[in-house]
Amino acid sequence: MSDDSPTDVPLLPPSAGQILSGCLAVTIWDTLCYLRADFQIVFLHKFTWRTLVFLMARHSTLGYLIFVTIFTVSTGGMSCNALQISFRAFLVLARTSTTLLILLRVIAIYHDTPWVKSIFLAMWAATLGGLMLLAIRGITFAPSGLSCTSYVDEQLIAPAMFIEILTDTIMCLAILYKLGGMTWKERGKSLRKILRPPHPLLTDIFLQDTLIYAWLALLSNVAIFIACFVGPTESVGAVAGHPGAVALNLISLRIYRNMKLGAPGLLPPSPQSDLSNLSGMIFNAPVSTIPATSTSTQVQANPEASQRIVKDMVTSPET
Predict the structure, then answer these.
(1) SS3 breakdown of the chain: % helix, strand, coil, rounded to 5?
(2) Is 271 buried (19+), middle (13-18) or exposed (0-12) by CB count in 10 A?
(3) Quick one: how far is CA 188 from the chain centroid?
(4) 76: region left, alpha or beta (phi > 0 left; psi from -120 to 50 alpha)
(5) How confident is the model at residue 30 (pLDDT cuts 50, 70, 90)?
(6) Could you say which DSSP state residue 110 is in?
(7) Cβ-Cβ contacts under 8 Å for 144 (sequence gap 6 or more)
(8) What residue stretch is flagged as signal peptide (predicted)?
(9) 119 with 319: CB under 8 angstroms?
(10) What is the rounded CA–CA span in Å between residue 294 and residue 188?
(11) CATH code assigned to 16-315
(12) How confident is the model at residue 154 (pLDDT cuts 50, 70, 90)?
């Protein structure tokens, strides 16, 4: 499709259909690549409501992209209102379940601190409310009689985006604070000592995935804000958020999968830690059964702090 070709949906850039099709292709590819791992999570582990959240995050994002792509490239013959209701419902499910997967990590770590869990549950509920408000207050019309156009009041976009940015950022900071405290206690208050490798094994595992999620959450929401309010045309904002939403979903699924199956993080581990062999033992076996090998001594560098956090993650009623 050339840059000067007409768009199927008025007010959208010509590349909208290509961007959405690419996002859909990436999601389908990721689903197929991890079919075996997802099968293990669903059928070989205890099925809980957290497993249901994982499946909801996976399939609601896929359904959302299917409907929004059809909505964008459709040239007629379909009900605009029905398509809009469908993809908005999937949008609310996809974004809130993605955030909830990260919230599960916070609840697992802070399961012995009820007030912290209450604060983050309230923030997640606010995120859900903001997304539902956008979905309910949106308007769908077909000015040309052949294609659909969606409109959402700008005054509703900014609060919903702000709540999402705040929730994602604070949840990730909470995880980093709790796990980074191990390094702080072990190495004193010198910043140079804290940043010097090797980090504790458990901290290594969590810092990798959650840092990537935090950066993606922040950058994607900032990109949407710029596209909506500062960009050359407001219509760009209608497309800018989709790649970021897909990336956040894939990372959150990766985090849950890593914690459930004991896979290493996204980034290469430090040479001092054998993540591929030890991480699975930490998250899938009682703390007392972890062998005292040279690699596990990092976890026990501060016995009380390390054992407490590992035990929280393994035996917590929230995991």
Answers:
(1) 70, 0, 25
(2) exposed
(3) 32
(4) left
(5) very high
(6) T
(7) 10
(8) none
(9) no
(10) 23
(11) 1.20.1070
(12) low
Tokens standing for residue 106: 């916070």
Q: β-strand 149-151 against 139-141: which pairing, if any?
A: antiparallel
Q: Which residues of 202-229 are buried (b: 16+ CB within 10 A; e: fewer)?
A: bbbbbbbbbbbbbebbeebbebbbebbe
Cα dihedral 293, 40, 53, 95 sign: positive
Q: Which amino acid is at 221?
A: N
Give percent of the chain above pLDDT 90. Answer: 8
∠ CA 299-302-306 to the nearest 5 degrees? 50
Those residues with Cβ within 8 angstroms of residue 85's Cβ, 6 or more apart along the chain or in another chain: none
Each residue of 165-213: pLDDT tens digit?
A: 788 778 878 877 776 666 666 656 555 555 556 655 555 655 667 767 7
Beta bridge partners of 141: 149
**Which residue ranges make up each domain of the chain?**
16-315
